[in-house]
Amino acid sequence: MSEHPAASLDETVHQRHRLGILTIAAEAGQVDFGYLRRTLDMTAGNLSRHVTILEEAGLIDVEKGYEGKRPRTWITISPAGRRALAAEVAALRALVSAVERAVPGRPRTV
Amino acid sequence: MSEHPAASLDETVHQRHRLGILTIAAEAGQVDFGYLRRTLDMTAGNLSRHVTILEEAGLIDVEKGYEGKRPRTWITISPAGRRALAAEVAALRALVSAVERAVPGRPRTV
After folding, report:
1. Dihedral sign of CA atoms B6, B11, B13, B15 in order
2. Do the Cβ atoms of B99 and A89 come closer than 8 Å?
3. Residue by residue, what is the 3-state secondary structure of B13-55?
4. CB burial class (10 A; 0-12, 13-18, 19+) of residue B59?
5. CA A58, B105, A51 angle in degrees (round to 5)?
Protein backbone atom coordinates (compact mmCIF):
# COMPACT_ATOMS: atom_id res chain seq x y z
CA MET A 1 0.00 0.00 0.00
CA SER A 2 3.03 2.24 0.47
CA GLU A 3 3.76 4.88 -2.16
CA HIS A 4 7.45 5.25 -1.33
CA PRO A 5 9.73 4.08 -4.19
CA ALA A 6 11.90 2.11 -1.72
CA ALA A 7 8.91 -0.14 -0.96
CA SER A 8 8.61 -1.17 -4.62
CA LEU A 9 12.15 -2.52 -4.97
CA ASP A 10 12.15 -6.23 -5.75
CA GLU A 11 14.77 -8.24 -3.87
CA THR A 12 15.39 -10.68 -6.75
CA VAL A 13 16.46 -7.85 -9.05
CA HIS A 14 17.72 -5.27 -6.52
CA GLN A 15 20.34 -7.44 -4.76
CA ARG A 16 23.62 -5.84 -5.87
CA HIS A 17 25.24 -8.88 -7.53
CA ARG A 18 22.07 -9.83 -9.40
CA LEU A 19 21.51 -6.22 -10.46
CA GLY A 20 25.07 -6.27 -11.83
CA ILE A 21 24.49 -9.51 -13.74
CA LEU A 22 21.24 -8.23 -15.28
CA THR A 23 22.74 -4.85 -16.15
CA ILE A 24 25.74 -6.35 -17.91
CA ALA A 25 23.58 -8.95 -19.69
CA ALA A 26 21.28 -6.13 -20.85
CA GLU A 27 24.28 -4.14 -22.09
CA ALA A 28 26.06 -7.05 -23.77
CA GLY A 29 23.15 -9.10 -25.14
CA GLN A 30 24.85 -12.40 -24.40
CA VAL A 31 27.65 -12.58 -21.88
CA ASP A 32 30.20 -15.19 -20.84
CA PHE A 33 30.40 -16.42 -17.22
CA GLY A 34 34.12 -15.58 -16.97
CA TYR A 35 33.55 -12.03 -18.21
CA LEU A 36 30.81 -11.50 -15.61
CA ARG A 37 33.04 -12.91 -12.88
CA ARG A 38 35.92 -10.56 -13.72
CA THR A 39 33.74 -7.49 -14.28
CA LEU A 40 31.78 -7.93 -11.06
CA ASP A 41 34.85 -9.14 -9.12
CA MET A 42 33.02 -12.22 -7.80
CA THR A 43 34.11 -15.77 -7.01
CA ALA A 44 32.85 -18.49 -9.37
CA GLY A 45 30.80 -20.06 -6.55
CA ASN A 46 29.08 -16.81 -5.60
CA LEU A 47 28.37 -15.87 -9.22
CA SER A 48 27.03 -19.36 -9.89
CA ARG A 49 24.62 -19.07 -6.95
CA HIS A 50 23.21 -15.73 -8.17
CA VAL A 51 23.00 -16.93 -11.80
CA THR A 52 20.90 -19.88 -10.60
CA ILE A 53 18.52 -17.59 -8.66
CA LEU A 54 18.03 -15.40 -11.75
CA GLU A 55 17.58 -18.43 -14.01
CA GLU A 56 14.99 -19.97 -11.66
CA ALA A 57 13.13 -16.63 -11.60
CA GLY A 58 13.03 -16.71 -15.43
CA LEU A 59 15.06 -13.50 -15.74
CA ILE A 60 18.01 -14.98 -17.63
CA ASP A 61 18.70 -18.00 -19.85
CA VAL A 62 21.84 -20.05 -19.31
CA GLU A 63 23.49 -22.06 -22.09
CA LYS A 64 26.47 -24.34 -21.59
CA GLY A 65 28.74 -25.25 -24.49
CA TYR A 66 32.27 -25.25 -25.81
CA GLU A 67 34.48 -22.73 -27.53
CA GLY A 68 37.07 -25.04 -29.09
CA LYS A 69 37.93 -27.35 -26.22
CA ARG A 70 37.11 -24.80 -23.52
CA PRO A 71 33.81 -25.22 -21.67
CA ARG A 72 31.82 -22.00 -21.66
CA THR A 73 28.64 -20.77 -19.99
CA TRP A 74 26.67 -18.09 -21.79
CA ILE A 75 24.09 -15.91 -20.06
CA THR A 76 21.31 -14.09 -21.93
CA ILE A 77 18.74 -11.75 -20.39
CA SER A 78 15.15 -12.90 -21.06
CA PRO A 79 12.23 -10.63 -22.03
CA ALA A 80 10.96 -11.02 -18.42
CA GLY A 81 14.45 -10.02 -17.24
CA ARG A 82 14.36 -6.86 -19.36
CA ARG A 83 10.94 -5.97 -17.96
CA ALA A 84 12.12 -6.59 -14.37
CA LEU A 85 15.24 -4.50 -14.96
CA ALA A 86 13.15 -1.67 -16.46
CA ALA A 87 10.88 -1.73 -13.36
CA GLU A 88 13.95 -1.62 -11.09
CA VAL A 89 15.42 1.30 -13.05
CA ALA A 90 12.11 3.18 -12.76
CA ALA A 91 12.09 2.61 -8.97
CA LEU A 92 15.76 3.67 -8.71
CA ARG A 93 15.09 6.87 -10.66
CA ALA A 94 12.23 7.72 -8.29
CA LEU A 95 14.43 6.94 -5.30
CA VAL A 96 17.32 9.06 -6.60
CA SER A 97 14.82 11.92 -7.15
CA ALA A 98 13.58 11.60 -3.57
CA VAL A 99 17.13 11.71 -2.19
CA GLU A 100 18.09 14.68 -4.33
CA ARG A 101 14.99 16.64 -3.35
CA ALA A 102 16.13 16.06 0.24
CA VAL A 103 19.65 17.42 -0.28
CA PRO A 104 19.63 21.17 -1.01
CA GLY A 105 22.07 22.41 -3.62
CA ARG A 106 22.31 19.12 -5.47
CA PRO A 107 20.92 18.77 -9.01
CA ARG A 108 17.26 17.77 -8.99
CA THR A 109 16.96 16.25 -12.44
CA VAL A 110 17.18 12.50 -12.72
CA MET B 1 39.71 -3.35 -9.82
CA SER B 2 36.45 -3.44 -11.78
CA GLU B 3 35.17 -0.22 -13.34
CA HIS B 4 31.56 -1.36 -13.64
CA PRO B 5 29.19 0.71 -11.41
CA ALA B 6 27.52 -2.50 -10.13
CA ALA B 7 30.82 -3.51 -8.50
CA SER B 8 30.93 -0.32 -6.42
CA LEU B 9 27.56 -0.84 -4.70
CA ASP B 10 27.97 -1.21 -0.95
CA GLU B 11 25.81 -3.94 0.61
CA THR B 12 25.22 -2.02 3.87
CA VAL B 13 23.60 0.87 2.00
CA HIS B 14 22.26 -0.89 -1.12
CA GLN B 15 20.11 -3.54 0.62
CA ARG B 16 16.57 -2.42 -0.24
CA HIS B 17 15.19 -2.00 3.29
CA ARG B 18 18.28 -0.12 4.49
CA LEU B 19 18.27 2.06 1.36
CA GLY B 20 14.63 2.87 2.16
CA ILE B 21 15.42 3.77 5.78
CA LEU B 22 18.34 6.03 4.75
CA THR B 23 16.34 7.69 1.96
CA ILE B 24 13.39 8.52 4.21
CA ALA B 25 15.68 9.69 7.03
CA ALA B 26 17.50 11.94 4.53
CA GLU B 27 14.17 13.33 3.30
CA ALA B 28 12.62 13.81 6.74
CA GLY B 29 15.63 14.83 8.85
CA GLN B 30 14.42 12.92 11.89
CA VAL B 31 11.91 10.13 11.50
CA ASP B 32 9.81 8.03 13.87
CA PHE B 33 10.13 4.21 13.91
CA GLY B 34 6.37 3.74 13.38
CA TYR B 35 6.36 6.07 10.36
CA LEU B 36 9.26 4.11 8.80
CA ARG B 37 7.49 0.82 9.47
CA ARG B 38 4.27 1.97 7.77
CA THR B 39 5.98 3.71 4.86
CA LEU B 40 8.28 0.78 4.08
CA ASP B 41 5.59 -1.81 4.90
CA MET B 42 7.91 -3.77 7.22
CA THR B 43 7.35 -5.72 10.43
CA ALA B 44 8.70 -4.14 13.63
CA GLY B 45 11.19 -7.02 14.02
CA ASN B 46 12.57 -6.72 10.51
CA LEU B 47 12.81 -2.91 10.70
CA SER B 48 14.52 -3.17 14.09
CA ARG B 49 17.13 -5.55 12.67
CA HIS B 50 18.01 -3.20 9.77
CA VAL B 51 18.01 -0.11 12.03
CA THR B 52 20.57 -1.87 14.26
CA ILE B 53 22.82 -2.70 11.27
CA LEU B 54 22.73 0.95 10.13
CA GLU B 55 23.35 2.22 13.67
CA GLU B 56 26.33 -0.12 14.14
CA ALA B 57 27.75 1.07 10.81
CA GLY B 58 27.49 4.66 12.09
CA LEU B 59 25.05 5.67 9.32
CA ILE B 60 22.13 6.63 11.59
CA ASP B 61 21.63 7.73 15.19
CA VAL B 62 18.83 6.19 17.24
CA GLU B 63 17.19 7.98 20.17
CA LYS B 64 14.57 6.45 22.44
CA GLY B 65 12.18 8.62 24.40
CA TYR B 66 8.55 9.40 25.13
CA GLU B 67 5.89 11.49 23.46
CA GLY B 68 3.48 11.94 26.37
CA LYS B 69 3.17 8.41 27.72
CA ARG B 70 3.93 6.74 24.39
CA PRO B 71 7.41 5.29 23.93
CA ARG B 72 8.99 6.52 20.71
CA THR B 73 12.13 5.74 18.74
CA TRP B 74 13.57 8.50 16.60
CA ILE B 75 16.02 7.86 13.77
CA THR B 76 18.36 10.53 12.39
CA ILE B 77 20.75 10.11 9.46
CA SER B 78 24.37 10.87 10.45
CA PRO B 79 26.89 12.85 8.34
CA ALA B 80 28.54 9.48 7.46
CA GLY B 81 25.08 8.22 6.47
CA ARG B 82 24.57 11.19 4.14
CA ARG B 83 27.97 10.57 2.54
CA ALA B 84 27.22 6.84 2.11
CA LEU B 85 23.81 7.63 0.59
CA ALA B 86 25.39 10.16 -1.79
CA ALA B 87 27.92 7.51 -2.93
CA GLU B 88 25.10 5.00 -3.45
CA VAL B 89 23.09 7.54 -5.47
CA ALA B 90 26.16 8.26 -7.65
CA ALA B 91 26.60 4.51 -8.29
CA LEU B 92 22.87 4.11 -9.04
CA ARG B 93 22.93 7.00 -11.52
CA ALA B 94 25.89 5.38 -13.33
CA LEU B 95 24.08 2.03 -13.32
CA VAL B 96 20.84 3.53 -14.65
CA SER B 97 22.89 5.23 -17.41
CA ALA B 98 24.49 1.90 -18.35
CA VAL B 99 21.09 0.18 -18.55
CA GLU B 100 19.57 2.97 -20.61
CA ARG B 101 22.48 3.03 -23.07
CA ALA B 102 21.76 -0.69 -23.52
CA VAL B 103 18.06 -0.27 -24.33
CA PRO B 104 17.52 1.52 -27.66
CA GLY B 105 14.68 4.00 -27.79
CA ARG B 106 14.71 4.75 -24.08
CA PRO B 107 15.78 8.19 -22.79
CA ARG B 108 19.53 8.36 -22.17
CA THR B 109 19.63 11.21 -19.69
CA VAL B 110 19.92 10.34 -16.02
Report:
1. positive
2. yes
3. HHCHHHHHHHHHHHHHCEEEHHHHHHHHCCCHHHHHHHHHHHH
4. buried
5. 20
What are the 10-residue block averages of pLDDT along chain A, 110 residues in total? 80 96 92 94 96 98 93 95 95 88 54
Q: How far away is chain B from the Cα of A51, in angstroms, using its nearest Cα?
A: 15
Interface with B, mutate which of A9, A99, A101, A106 (most B CBs under 10 A): A99
User: What is the SS3 string spanning B60-78?
Assistant: EEEEEEEECCEEEEEEEEC
The single-letter DSSP state of residue B85 is H
Residue type, A54: L
Q: What ipTM was assigned to the predicted interfaces of this complex?
A: 0.83
Residue type, B11: E
Residue B28 C-alpha, separation from nearest chain A C-alpha, in angstroms: 8
Question: How many CB atoms are located within 10 Å of the residue B38 CB?
Answer: 13
Taking the C-alpha atoms of residue A52 and residue A72, their distance in angstroms, rounded to an integer, is: 16
Chain B residue with CA closest to A86: the answer is B99
Instruction: Assign residue A71 a region (left: φ > 0; alpha: ψ between -120 and 50; beta: otherwise).
Output: beta
In a 3-state reduction of DSSP, which class is residue A63? strand
Could you read off the pLDDT of B77-109 as tens digits, one per residue? 999 999 999 999 999 999 988 888 876 544 434
Which chain A residues contact residue B20 at CB under 8 A? 4, 6-7, 9
